[in-house]
Amino acid sequence: MNPRVKSVKSLDGYKLHIEFTNGEHGIFDCSEFLNFGVFSELKDINYFKQVKVEDGTIVWPHEQDICPDTLYIDSVKTYGFSTVQEDNPNEYKA
After folding, report:
1. Least packed by Cβ within 10 Å: which of 1, 6, 44, 90?
2. Domains assigned to the chain
3. pTM (2 decimals)?
4. Residues 55, 66 contacting (CB under 8 angstroms)
5. Which residues are paired to 26 by β-bridges?
């Protein structure tokens, strides 16, 4: 079983910074989902930013979610980076 999501932070360009339960971090690009059924609501950037962690995956208020295995397998791992800077979420600190 792949690790689950521990924390999530929305980034520019419909991307998410995800920390997994095994300590790894990754960037997941949600843009490919934006024209797919229930995910089209994510085009509203204010709604997209309401992402949160629930039961080891990510969810939005109207029950959209993405499989935690997909998040782990398809995220670009950011080895060596630990957290997203709160004042500039597109920069990382080691």
Report:
1. 1
2. 5-93 (3.30.2020.10)
3. 0.82
4. no
5. 18, 77
